[in-house]
Amino acid sequence: MKIVDIEIIPIFPRIAARNADQKARFRDINRRTIFKVKADNGIVGYGDARCEAPPRSSVEPLIGRSPFDFLNANLNTGLMGALYDAMGKHLGAPAYKLMGQKVRDRVPVAAWTRPASPEDLSREVQRAAAQGYKIFKMHTCEYYDVLEQNRAVEAVAPEGFWMHYDFNHNRGLTAVLRLVHELEKSRVVGMIEDPLKLNDIDGWRRLREKTRLPILMHVPQLGGGQEIMRGCADAYMVGEVGVGVSMARGFACAEANVSTVVQLTGGTLTKAMAMHLAAVLPTVSHSINLDDQYEEDVTKARIPVVEGCSPVPEAPGLGVEVDEAALARAAANRPTAIPRHLGVLHLAGGHRLYTPSFPGVSRLLGFPEGNIRGLRLEVWEDDGSKEFAQVYARVEKEGPVLE
């Protein structure tokens, strides 16, 4: 079997209806690329990644080669999904059989959202629980109070539901320690990702000694092996770093009895690839895929979530069927137009900070992320009012305005 062509198809599926009125917040979430690998035996493999469409030159070296030449390669994960889909279809076997021994039939999966106000997060947690999820990932941010967000989750989350907070690897230990100690008292906090700058190896080890919460490292700066040996984290991220790196890191973590978290983001094809990867890595905690962010997709069915987990597909290849008509519709869509808007940051003392978009609070006010209580952001979209026009013009001229 030889590759005769690879199509690179940019798509813009509609975002979930519940988020359609928050275009600025969900900017570029629906910018995805489908890879369509065609072989000389008529087999077609499909893969998906949440990324800009790469240039044609990036796939030309694969033309005329066997897909099997690229087992466990570190190419674009969407392209790798298409290659595994083609190889599995050729062999009549699910993709995980090309990766290793299967160790689980179902994989815990996490719902997701962009940084949210306490009210929006409350609604999202209730939505996720109703859809069968038991884990929820969200990045914290500079313009909402994470303790207030967490109280909103505590008020609505069912028993056994927990949050995976991503702290954005942007702080030192002194800016994080009290926050982590406060959050570890909560019944709904299950994991903290990237609480410190990634190069602060000693800080990671010290924080891990001081907290009961599991901490997750996304991109080990020393490659993973050194961090594992130094006991920097309780879990390490795999997936988007590439299939080959993910396999190596995942099995290394298993040997050290350390957990991994799979993160591959896109639609159902992406989730299928993640399920196959998670099927063979022994210590996977959960998978994050973002397939819950789209009102439409390019497959004939979604992968269900039941009791917090999703099945590993057993059909050949990735095990999900592409709907060519749906693919054509998603490819015909245009990128979401972002309306003119302002960020209005409301501070606890009654002041307001106007910014061109989402504010960089740590730069503007000097406090590290998570160290200001009682702040919250309002996104003010152009409503045609004279007041908006005046404030927008002032911010354009003067930059951020604190009143």
UniProtKB/TrEMBL annotation:
Gene3D superfamilies the record matches: Enolase-like C-terminal domain, Enolase-like, N-terminal domain
In the UniProt record, the signal sequence range is none
Asked if the Swiss-Prot or TrEMBL record annotates the protein with the keyword Nuclease, the reply is no
| Top-level taxon in the UniProt lineage | Bacteria
Concerning InterPro entries, the annotation shows: DgoD-like, Enolase-like_C_sf, Enolase-like_N, Enolase_C-like, Mandelate_racemase_C
Matches recorded under SUPFAM superfamilies: Enolase C-terminal domain-like, Enolase N-terminal domain-like
Quote the PANTHER family the UniProt record gives: D-GALACTONATE DEHYDRATASE-RELATED, ENOLASE SUPERFAMILY MEMBER DDB_G0284701
Family per record = Belongs to the mandelate racemase/muconate lactonizing enzyme family.
Protein name (Swiss-Prot/TrEMBL): Mandelate racemase/muconate lactonizing enzyme C-terminal domain-containing protein
Q: Which species is this record about?
A: Handelsmanbacteria sp. (strain RIFCSPLOWO2_12_FULL_64_10)
